[in-house]
Amino acid sequence: DDCGNSIIVEQLITINNSEVPLVFLDPEESSVGTGDIFTTTMEISGVSDLASFELNITFDANYLQANSVSLGDFLGSSGRPTLPLENSIDNVSGIISYAITTLGSVPGANGDGILLEIEWTAAADLEDDVITDVFLENLQITNPTGGLLCQEIQNASVSISACYPHDFDCD
To answer: What is the pTM of this model?
Structure first.
């Protein structure tokens, strides 16, 4: 297809297209304690002419709560002004919805950088250690003319260490 995946042609010849940008959460694996506030970033590497993106970030609201989502400096690095379209957090369903575009006639952003910064709070009342996942879903990235750019996605996990009875400082 147009996104760098393998293509099977009528003669059953497989053609692999060139590399595509990687969109990922950093760190890929976080280790925190109950009630800890911590930050992850959503980053991109190897992109050319990025002008907008939209996605849902999903998580288990039993274990994580999203406190805030803020735009990183990469999208505006091309000099194109940014125009936020959606920035909502649903801590009941465990969904962050984010969409932003840029305006102007100059090319979009190139290279590597931070797209979003997300502040989280880990659940405070766990009896056992938990590993929970954070997923990038329905991601679309586009160039200045609205053409879809292909991408690969790397999700993340958070390991939350529970406090044990009579361990008042959780160490």
So the answer is: 0.86
